[in-house]
Design a protein that fits this description.
The chain is an alpha/beta fold. The protein is 43% helix and 15% strand. The chain has one domain: Rossmann fold (3-Layer(aba) Sandwich).
């Protein structure tokens, strides 16, 4: 059994999509040669519309792994709330460091943020999940939230008020530029993640949690408190 958790974003790598694809192919070949029987891959969600470059790459890696001869379970998570998560670091810095924020349109997009603890439980359970074929599953959190609500809830957990001024014409491309001044996350990585937030990133279903008997998910507020405490 092997877990595939790597990605090639960050560091200004422009052709990371091709690099990620080659890495997945090399990993699959090595796993087959080593006699690995199952791969568990943590990827990203599939939007209803055209995916961003980042999400397209994540989905392509999953498809590449699932085309091999090994059993593959692909778990698709959107925003992971936990210390060490790049998406968490971005929203945490925005909510905590800015007293007032000009709110770009992309922060109205909705997602189902998932606690790091639940992601770890999903990865562990996927190792023993009975499969008749290679499959992918969404692993959503318990609440549907807009980006603005995510920021407001993080600020509330910290005991502060978050003031947002809506500016619909501020595009993801433009708003990504000021992330360089606000977040500690690698800028090129932050930019790619923000570009994926131009539309809703909602799950197809939550059947994975039912399959593994894990339906008591960590709430967003509890996950945010744990992430902040871990700092």
């Amino acid at each position: 059994m092997a877990y595939y958790l790597v990605h090639a974003m960050g560091g200004g790598q422009k052709d990371y999509g091709e690099l990620e694809l080659r890495a997945a192919q090399a990993f699959l070949a090595a796993a087959q040669a080593a006699g690995v029987e199952r791969i568990v891959y943590l990827g990203g969600p599939s939007p209803l519309g055209p995916p961003s470059e980042h999400l397209r790459s994540r989905l392509a890696v999953g498809e590449t792994l699932r085309k091999g001869s090994l059993r593959v379970v692909e778990l698709r998570a959107s925003m992971v709330i936990g210390h060490g998560s790049a998406s968490w670091q971005i929203v945490r810095d925005l909510a905590v460091r800015l007293p007032v924020m000009v709110l770009p349109k992309w922060l109205s997009s909705r997602t189902r943020p998932i606690a790091l603890d639940d992601v770890i439980d999903a990865l562990i359970a996927a190792a023993d999940l009975e499969l008749s074929q290679n499959e992918w599953f969404d692993v959503p959190g318990p609440e549907t939230m807009s980006g603005q609500q995510v920021l407001e809830r993080i600020a509330a957990v910290r005991g502060r008020h978050f003031l947002a001024l809506k500016v619909p014409l501020l595009t993801p491309q433009l708003s990504a530029l000021w992330l360089r001044l606000v977040t500690r996350t690698d800028f090129s990585l932050a930019r790619e993640l923000v570009m994926g937030l131009q539309q809703d990133l909602l799950p197809k279903d939550d059947r994975f949690w039912k399959l593994i008997g894990h339906e008591q998910l960590v709430s967003f507020d509890v996950a945010a408190r744990r992430a902040l405490a871990a700092e």
